[in-house]
Each structure stands twice: as C-alpha cells, then as structure tokens.
Amino acid sequence: MNGPVIAGVAALSAGTYAIRFAGPMLRRRIDFPARVTRLLEIGSVVLLTALAATLIVPAAGHRAGFPLPTGVLVAGVLAWCRVPLIIVVIAAAATTAVLRVCGVP
User: Fold this and answer.
1) What's the whole-model pTM score?
2) pLDDT digits (tens, 9 = 90+) for 79-103
3) What does the alpha-carbon distance between residue 12 and residue 26 come to, in Å, rounded to a whole number?
4) Enclosing H/E stretch for 75
5) 10 contact partners, CB below 8 Å, separation of at least 6
6) Helix (H) or strand (E) holding 34
7) Inter-helix orientation angle 67-80/85-101, to 10°
8) Tens-place pLDDT, residues 18-58
9) C-alpha distance from residue 16 to each of 9, 20, 23, 24, 33 (Å)
C-alpha cells in the first residue's frame, strides 16, 4: 500500500475511535436540552430513511429487481422494531439472497 493511504486509514480509524469514545464520556458531563435530544433522535431516523431510500434505487444502468428492495424493506421493519443491528443485516442479506436463489427477478 501507499504511505499516504495508510496514514489516511490510521487517521480515520483514530478519529472514529475518538468520537465513539467521547459519546459515553461526555454524556455524564454535558446536559443537552430536551429539544436538542429530540432533534438528534429525529435526525437519526431521517438519516436511516435516506440510507434505505438510496439502497432501494438501483445504480445507473443496473436493474435491482425485486429482491434488493425487499431486503431493504425487511431491514427497515426490523430496525423500526429495534432488533439488534447484526440480526437486521443478516435478515436483510438472507432475504435478498433467498429471493435471488429462487430466481425472483
């Protein structure tokens, strides 16, 4: 690998770890107003909805068919029900894979 690439990956890894570590540490020291907390909750829902919407729309020139949107829908429903993330990912992938193996276009 290239030296700048390794440095970029290391910096991104350190930054990600620092942000994840700062959350629990700052939660005890900073009190956010109820309105800010509510806006952050709404923001996370909007972000996940936007992510799901972009996954449903196929890439340019690629026809996704029925299995991909179905897998995303399964993931959305499970996430809405607050199922653990690993189960959401596995269920969505399994749904898409089973539909593709069965020959669903």
Assistant:
1) 0.53
2) 889 888 889 989 999 999 999 999 8
3) 21
4) helix 67-80
5) none
6) helix 34-56
7) 160
8) 888 887 788 778 888 889 888 888 888 888 778 777 777 76
9) 10, 6, 11, 14, 25
